[in-house]
Design a protein that fits this description.
single chain; 365 residues; alpha/beta; nine-stranded mixed sheet; globular; disordered N terminus
Amino acid sequence: MASACGMIFSMRICLLLCLSLCMAAPALAQVAVFPAPSGKPDAQTLVVYSSLDEPLATPMIEGFQKANPDVAVHYEDMLTGEIYDRIVKETDAGKKTADFAFSSAMDLQVKLSNDGYAQRSDLAMSARWPAWANWRNTAYALTFEPAVFVYHKPSFTTEKPPATRAEFVNYLEHHAKEVYGRIATYDIERSGVGFLFMSRDQEQFGDIWSVIKAMGAAGVKVYSTSSAILERVSDGRFVLGYNILGSYAADWASRHPDVGIVLPKDYTVVMSRIGLVPEAAANPELGRRYLEFFMSKEGQTIMARQLQIPAVSPEVAGENTANTMQAIHGAQLRPVPVSPGLMVYLDQVKRSRLIERWNEALRSQ
């Protein structure tokens, strides 16, 4: 969604880069180059590793370059595990790595910070940033994205959609025939966000396994992407989706009027995308400048209005912000703190046990 200005100033060079990963098979990263708007031949280049799709990232890059016209941006769009692996491998090999890393894998970003692969960034907004969203001025939560219920509006003309987990289970039990095979959630074995939401559910809700069993009894379908679920809700193949990332749901609902959204009233888990400056950044000052722009009122406003991703900054007001959402929903919202506690389920034994119990609960019905 590049602006006309961006089309003038930005030249997109899309390359396929083979990555050798220690935790996954070789994958493909998409690279986009945004030349310095000033045209300066010896312009500095900011290198970014990010899991945010390049078209979504473009408005933020353009805003940064408007304030920094002598800076080119080399943007690598990759999976969250690839970001972690690249930074660790390059750092351990004594090489330089990205100047800025932005990822939705909260656990892996915190692990980079905790294990010494990220450096402190003491910025103007550091002291004013929400305490839950700042780990030692090293890893910063930059977005505010709730896990929501989504529903097919035409399927709920005579009754309201469920607004709590207890209501969700009750609806599945009382509409067993109509909804069988028509509900969906993330596959927690393949979706990092899905696994994060499930692990938080287990901590927040003592009876969560009754919800999982009820979904199993209703023939739940599991997917690794939000779009696969939202597409099927929008056309009526599915009536309900559980724990769907709210930013994607809101974007989809804006284009598909049959998609409805509910923030669960018992509690709503909120995840964030985390930004940091790697310890082995080739140009850490540029990385910090980009992070500072991300945290600025201007950058967070671009996030909320153009990227349609809720902003964290306490300085930004408006519908799509943490400020407004917290004012409306209060303690119902449960942001995932940026802290070492996120690394609990990186322990493969604990992770395997949770996945095994999940699969058993789905199969038991």
